[in-house]
Amino acid sequence: MSAGFGPLLAAVTLLQSNGATMLPEWLADVLRLDGLGVAGTAIAALIGAFVIANVLLINAALAGPWAKRKIAAAFWGKLGPNRMGPGGTLIIVADALRMLSKELIVPEGADRPAWDIAPIIVAGSAMLGFAVIPFGKIGGVQVQLADPEIGLVLVFAIASVTSVGLVMGGYASKNKYSMLGSLRAVAQNIAYEIPLIVSAGSVVIFAGTLQLSGIVDAQTETLVSVGGFGIPAWYAFVNPFAFILFLTANLAEVGRNPFDIPEAPTEIVAGYQTEYSSVYFVLIYLGEFLHIFLGGALAAVVFLGGGAGPVLPGPVWLIVKMWAFFLFTQWARQTFPRVRIDQLIEIGWKGLLVLAFANLILTAVLVGFLEGDVEFAFASLQVITA
Amino acid sequence: MSTGEEQSGDDAGEQAIEPTEAKVAELQSLLGDHVLDTEEHLNAPAIVIRPDAVQAVLSTLKEEAGYDHCSCVTAQQYPDRYESIYHLKKYADPTDEVSVVVPTARDDPTSESGAPVYETASWHEREAYDLVGIDYDDHPDLRRILLPDTWQGHPLREDYDQDRPQIVTLRENANPLLEDHRGSEEEGESDTMFLNIGPHHPATHGVLHLETVLDGEQVLDVDPDIGYLHRCEEQMCQQGTYRHQIMPYPDRWDYISAGLLNEWAYARTAEDLADIEVPEYAQVIRTMGAELCRIASHMLAMGTFALDINGDFTATFMWAIRERERAQSVLEELTGQRLMFNYFRLGGVAWDLPSPREDFFELTRDFLDGLPEATREFHDLLTNNEIMQLRTIDTGVIDPETAKDFGCTGPVARASGIDYDLRRDDPYGYYDELEWDVVTEDGCDNYSRLLVRMREVEQSAKIIDQCIDLLEDWPEDEREIQSNVPRTLKPERDTEIYRAVEGAKGELGIYIRADGTDKPGRFKIRSPCFSNLQSLPAMAEGEYIPDLVAALGSLDIVLGEVDR
Questions:
Q1: Looking at the complex, does the CB of residue B393 fall below 8 Å from at least one CB of chain A?
Q2: Nearest residue, CB atoms, B201 vs list A269, A333, A343
């Protein structure tokens, strides 16, 4: 394999800078913070982060108390919230007030610092992941806070930090249901993060870079032209098998049906979050929704061309794709029964993992032959035969 | 034994007695010296035995005479003695009944336990011990079952002071946070975890408490703890008059929209006790109403089962509730109520179909026409869903022999291949005049129990359809909704009867002993949920927690009926 990663690494170094102005740089330029040197860049980055975080919070606020109910109501043949404000949207305010005015109940014997930190980690890690997500371009400005070379690895690493929060919360609650839930969360995340990363890895072979902006740029070409309409070379079209694997593993990663077993109401009450109330509950809830959006953003960036789309600017398209993924999770929630813990582990280790590796190696072989890198292809074939 | 047989006159009555005598003689020759005396209950011959011969008699009756269904155990106090009555039946023919009466001394009410013979007697005897205070020797686990462990006295005894309040504080109950490794072999060094599921838990469908011992995610031991919803229903019925005051209570036993089915249990028992006829027209209305209730009840059972498997309020649950609402709307037109109907009267029903009758028929037909589409949706969403099948097939298995031993009835028994339905096997109402089938499945698992309920909905719809046709063509001058029933009913002293109907959850039986007044001397309810719930450990031990929850959901218990 080492022979195979040679050109790959070379490609990574080549694509370090892609020309467009990054959001913090642009902010520093517009707000005339250049004079302050490093401090100016830092302030500009903070402002950028503040803007992006707020956009996400607005999305989460819309999704949690309002859209989720509306979507569920549509599935049930009901109306959903419609009395408070236009389309019932003021229920967001009402819900926020309701949640915040609840008593914060601390269970007897809770492991205090850990119990308090857990919700912050859950919400914070999901938010942190967006630091490297390329939202697309508006007028030559790349709406992205940072674009490290190892963006894809970093974002997976950050998303996994959530598991730490879940375990902390579950273990520190001193509740048996919470502990069962947190143990399930660990088992599930280990079982599904590997196929998730491996199926994303097949995209890296195509794109030849781990840099998220690079992966998006690699999808801008036209795959085939049908009657004047160009179908873009999104990896969802190039390698639909990997896309399906990624979506499935992503459902498990964000803990939605049929893989919502870490919470599993009706089995273990609410799993790791059983003992959380009031503000902490809001934080965990927020973390979950941000996590779904992060999963959606990743799916969009890696497989659906990031911010690519006609007429509307890039960030809008990315958010639309995030919401599409959110809708997908809600659809799954309404229709799929939940698998049992042993079945979940079995599907993860025996099914998805094997398929993900098969996909990775086949992709490597195909890419090797297509690009004429016979050495790379044979190296991959050797892995299969071994 | 309602209209059909009553109307056929005296001849049938006399003929019925002779086989009874032959049966008693047969039982006497089988049991020999064990039989002290024989009595005649209205439903069956009764044999009186010594308290130390219970196991010998019961096992002979079970093994040799084929009485494999211990339907109920009733305990009561007389001025001079205590009495336990084992109501035995055959799954093959529930009309072949026998009551085993075990009198015990007033100063030392100790009797041998029947639990080693019939598993189901275990809980029934615990209840008898709890409420009446009879001690059962050789009982595997004689604890209180409905009342808290610290309760003083036995409430159905004559000397019990009903006016003295008893407060059981939380402190007196076990602390749920304490270390607890019960069920493990070595104290202190164990990997098991004790988990309280309930009484407040999303999956218990009410206030049920499951004391569970887990090994990882697997259930080693589960012990249902009931009694949180005990409302003294039996005692309340003992304080009401037969004619009108008891009928509202049955609605509150199985309150999951099975009201009319419950009312029929009381109506059937009291009508047979007081020898009341029911006009055929009223029987057709009763049959239709009861089947509407069964559909509503099964819809909720399917919805909550889906809720247990899906784990959230999902489309399946809401769609099931939508169909249930439609059934309830028809029932509301018929009875004026959506849940607590109080529609049956002794000797008939409260009033005729609402006028204009055409509108009612149209409403009902619309509901029935929509059902096939709804069932198709449920098959798409639930039974044909591969994850659903993965979750439910071969989980929560209970084989037919175990199910019979636990006294399982209703869809639970029929899903284990036991072809037992009182509507057909012990006909009442108008069922034997109509075309319909008893649904059975051989899977014995959670999936079969779901399938049985779904297919029973189709059969109920078939019954309702035929009832509507009958009612539509019923001549106007023969629409008699109630027979002539005396204002006050005083059945003869010491007449005893045990009668059951096919409720939504299974065999819903009532035992009444008349004491010569206008109120029952003893009123005992045989709840199908009570017996079905008892089989949960047999289904769930060794399974994963999610399957325990699924098995519980598939039993379709209503705590109001379990605890009464």
A1: no
A2: A269
Q: What token pair was written down for B423? A: 């509507």
B298-313 in b/e form (b: 16+ CB < 10 A) is bbbbbbbbbbbbbbbb
Average pLDDT of the residues in B72-78: 89
DSSP H/E element including B439: none
The gap from C-alpha A215 to its chain's centroid, in whole angstroms, comes to: 15
Supply φ then ψ for residue B110, to 5 degrees.
-120, 135
Interchain contact A222–B (C-beta under 8 A): no
The ipTM is: 0.75
Interface check for A343 against chain B (CB to CB < 8 A): the answer is yes
pLDDT for B187 equals 55
pLDDT tens column, B207-257:
888 888 888 788 888 888 888 888 888 888 888 898 888 988 998 888 887
CA separation (Å) from B187 to A343, B18, B192, B212, B214? Answer: 32, 61, 10, 17, 15
Phi, psi of B379 (to 5 degrees): -65, -40
pLDDT tops 80 at residue A266 = no
Please indicate if any CB of chain B lies within 8 Å of the CB of A256.
Answer: no
- The answer, for A264 touching chain B at a CB cutoff of 8 Å, is yes
What residue of B is the nearest CA neighbor of A274?
Answer: B201
Contact B51, B104 (CB under 8 A): yes
Domain boundaries, chain B: 3-137, 233-563
Please indicate whether, in this complex, the C-beta atoms of B307 and A266 are within 8 angstroms of each other. yes
Cross-strand partners of A373: none
Alpha-carbon distance of A337 to B547, in angstroms, equals 13
Alpha-carbon dihedral sign for residues B17, B23, B24, B25: positive
Distance from CA of A215 to the nearest CA of B (A): 35
Gyration radius (Cα) of chain B, Å: 23
Pick among B309, B313, B316 to test the A interface (most A CBs inside 10 A): B309
The domain B3-137 is classified under which CATH number: 3.40.50.920, 3.40.109.10, 3.30.460.80, 3.30.56.70?
A: 3.30.460.80
- Whole-number Å distance between alpha carbons of A135 and A318: 6
Give the nearest partner residue to B387 out of A77, A174, A339, using CB atoms: A339
B233-563 CATH pick, 3.40.190.10, 3.20.20.100, 3.40.50.720, 1.10.645.10? 1.10.645.10
- Which of A171-175, A319-323, B381-385 has the largest mean confidence? A319-323
CB neighbour list of residue B274: distance below 8 Å, 6 or more residues apart: B242, B346, B489, B491
